[in-house]
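W.,

You were right to be curious about this one. When I first looked at the sequence I had no strong expectations either way, so I just let the prediction run and decided to look at it fresh. Below is the sequence, 380 residues in total, followed by the output.
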Amino acid sequence: MLPRTLFSSEHEMLRDSFRKFLQTEAVPHYEKWEKIGQVDKSIWKAAGEQGYLAPLVSEEYGGLGLDFLYNVILTEEIGRLGLNGIGFPLHSDIVVPYLSRLGTEEQKQKYLPACVSGEIVTAIAMTEPGTGSDLQGIKTTAKKEGDDFVINGSKTFITNGQLADLVIVVAVTDPTAGAKGLSLILVEANTPGFERGSNLAKIGMKSQDTSELFFNDVRVPQSNLLGPEGSGFAQLMAELPQERLTIAVHCMAMCESVLAQTVEYVKERKAFGQNIGAFQNTQFVLADLDTEIDAARAFTDRCIELHLTKDLTTELASKAKLLVTELLGKVVDKCLQLYGGYGYMLEYPVARAYADARVMRIYGGTSEIMKLIIARQLLK
């Protein structure tokens, strides 16, 4: 594997401790979580106690005030161990940063310490039935009545939807203003009128609770507005590079892990009187994948470096997501083929990785949307 220069010894200590945490607290239970459709909420509190949730949050709000490299390590270890249903990255890398960046002092004091401790699990409700990647097509409304917003609408494909205690809802506050009519509003899960739909059955990531959410005259104070009114679309666009980089980081770790497992398998598996690793076809497949993975690793790590200095552009983040999610699809497909029929059995991690990988080319913006973003910049 290509040598990496991003991490210090302190970073690697965190990696080692978090890997041990996952092996103790998650791996023994993961099969059960896959069957019931969500992880046990106790792992959130256990992770919070160890400082593994939202490490970027500043110390004054109960966090550790660390840099994004710590988030990278946590995401990589989840992907490397194939624990893709654990929704820590969505919470720590995507939702909590909205609160840290846009929240009022009152909102930060109220929510951030509990987000760090694991007492609050977060979600963000963007996607609606029929809208997909089209954020400007959102129909959920938040109308002012007195000192409140009254929210009506529905959302779908919401990660952490069953477990979430706090949801950032993307809603239309001014239907005449187009993209400038969208706002972000905080909704606590115990608010009257808020309902969770079914935990959606998916091809993969079965232990990741993915839900429909319904808002029926949900009344929240206007003080629950997150950031300036009408700035929701701009705020979403500002956070998307980190979201897409996080997906690339996760997928990169999965690529490396699946390849490493496959290399070990072909050394042991015999066919026609020899290890299948001795066949030229096997060697060529592995050589191609190893080379492409190293190249994608170099690009992804460079994007991480740029993000640390706030120089990661939307286009580069889109390239990272496009490159690595498409590569992951290739890696899991080619590696599963080398396992033969055993690769189709869920007892082998490659089978679960194959199923889990497919959504990576869809959420956070489809591959087609990534291509549009990249092409627009090229043709400016």
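Here's what jumped out at me. The two ends are 37 Å apart (CA to CA). And, maybe more interesting for your project: The first strand starts at residue 122 and ends at 125.

Coffee later to discuss?

I.
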